[in-house]
Amino acid sequence: QVHLVESGGGLVQPGGSLRISCTASGATFRDYAMGWFRQAPGKEREFVAAVSWSGTSLNYGDSVKGRFTISRDNVKNTVDLQMENLQPEDTAVYYCYGSAPLKPTYWGQGTQVIVSS
Question: Is the pLDDT of residue 12 over 90?
Fold first, then answer.
């Protein structure tokens, strides 16, 4: 079983930056592709970004392309999301996940990001 814990959320002004992290434990981290979804109040969960087990394949949701960068460290068992030029519409709870073939998908408990002046 994989245990995921997010950190780094908070309040940031429009145009600002924030870095959130997800730390994994309990399984072989390199077995899992990792990524982030987000969910704003009253909206469906939205794909944000994903990174392959090796870190060489990256994917982003259309709404964050060019502003967000995902990365992973297979030594520290972490996956980070660097967010730039944040806007109020980026306000959401951000969830880390891990997925691997023939294995369950695991989710963290979420970290709140609020973009407001």
Answer: yes
- What are 55-96's pLDDT values in tens digits? 999 999 999 999 999 999 999 999 999 999 999 999 999 999
* Placement of tokens 């592709």 in the chain: 33
- Cα 89 to Cα 43: distance, rounded to the nearest angstrom: 11
Torsion angle of C-alpha atoms 49, 54, 57, 58, degrees rounded to 10: 20
- Could you give the 3-state DSSP secondary structure of residue 20? strand
Residue 28: predicted pLDDT: 86
pLDDT for 25-66, tens place per residue? 987 888 899 999 999 999 999 999 999 999 999 999 999 999
Residue showing tokens 């994903």? 50
Whole-angstrom Cα distance, residue 110 to residue 9? Answer: 9
Distance from C-alpha of 2 to C-alpha of 40, rounded to nearest angstrom: 25
3-state helix, strand, coil in the chain (%, to 5): 5, 50, 45
Length of the chain counted residue by residue = 117
Residue 16 forms beta bridges with which residues? none
